[in-house]
Write a structure and sequence with these properties.
five-stranded antiparallel sheet; 2% helix; mainly beta; 34 strands; 466 residues
Amino acid sequence: MPPKPNNKEVQVNNPARDVANFPNITQSETTLAHFKDFILYGFNDINNTNSLSGFSFSSDSGKHWKESGTIPVNPGGVNEGDPVIAVDKKGIFYYGQLGGEVINGVFQGVISVSTGTINPNKTITMHPPQVVGRGQNPSATIGTQDKEWITVGPDRIRPGKEALYVVWTDFTTTGGNSNIRFSKYTTGVNLQDLITDRDIIIPPNANTFVRGANLVVDKQGNIYVFYEEITNFLQLGQPNRTIRMRKSTDGGNTFPLNTDVVVSTTSFAPAANNVVQCGVDGAGNPILRPVISVGTQNIRNNEFPQASIGPNGTIYVVWNAGTIINGPINIFLTFSENQGATWSPPVNITLGLPFAFFPSVATNANGAHIQYNRFNDPAGVGGVGNRTFGIFMKTFSVSKGLSLESVVSNPSSPVVTLTCYMGDYNQIITGPGHSLLHAWGDNRNTLNGQINPDVFFRKTDSKKKP
């Protein structure tokens, strides 16, 4: 049995909105942040075709939720979801997303942030998006600025103040490859730029790709950017991926090349068992992607890292990795106790035959808590098991090692029928006291005979034993 400070999980999105907007009923890609007992929860929501950036909030640590629709849209703009939420020490929330905005009369794909302020009646007001990321060669195509991550942390250049940090992948770079870019803004309802649209990670050659950036900031204001480097996107069963880190010690003004290290220690194979066509591009060319095939359904799956810093400064990073074709797909963790200079050998968190995916990590004094999806496998056949999945967790401690697995939620969820899509990530964060706040999407529900992907929350206690 899982830890139970709240002996139930809660559906965060409002089912009535799915009924009203059928067949546009998918919610996925969850993120959350809290200020005291107030939680803001973001997710992709196709109920509203103008703004795919949905949100709900709870003012009582997750016992009750109110879905408030989607993030406001600027005139001529669109919100395209893929949210990441952060919060500052004053309780102002920051909802990062993909989008499109009209800038100097020209529509272009961007990364934007909507700030949110808690009202006296314990609701929240989300403000119109502000652009925080643009491409090297701005394009009207949504998604050319992609895979953003944001966080709030100390600003080394402005002692005593916080900053909003943003990283993302720019697919508009000259030469057709992709770079990872960085921006930094003041905190507050109205953002002021400090550093904008700076290329910080450029692939070493035309056959190497970088994407999936994630960042954390330590108490001294050092910035750590983690990312995946890929040398062959479609080749399964071969070690062609690494997780790397680049560091800034001057507030983001520079990310020196000599700080770039391989966090995963060695290369690894794609976390996939098949390569299939997942639609076509704007020119009609097939888009091929590594996927986890589950019968006739396919889950597009990335190996992107997520990171967290513990109270003592230890940095933990998790990612998804495969081995040989149809071999295990597991979750791995590494840690650094010297501000990213060196990293431990990878720890295999899941150690299992059934495939695991969508890892996330949160840290507190009790260790690093790793949440992940895993296929149910009662017959011990491995791979996709019985073709249903649940959400699980383990805790890792440098001194005590790896805990047994506990269940966050196991609704025996099927895989959706959408082409190559079941979201890209879930999230776990630390909450008040020793609590952990879990966000995820699954497909347990149906509506009018159709699988209905919804998003859920649970609060657990990191001090209790599974």
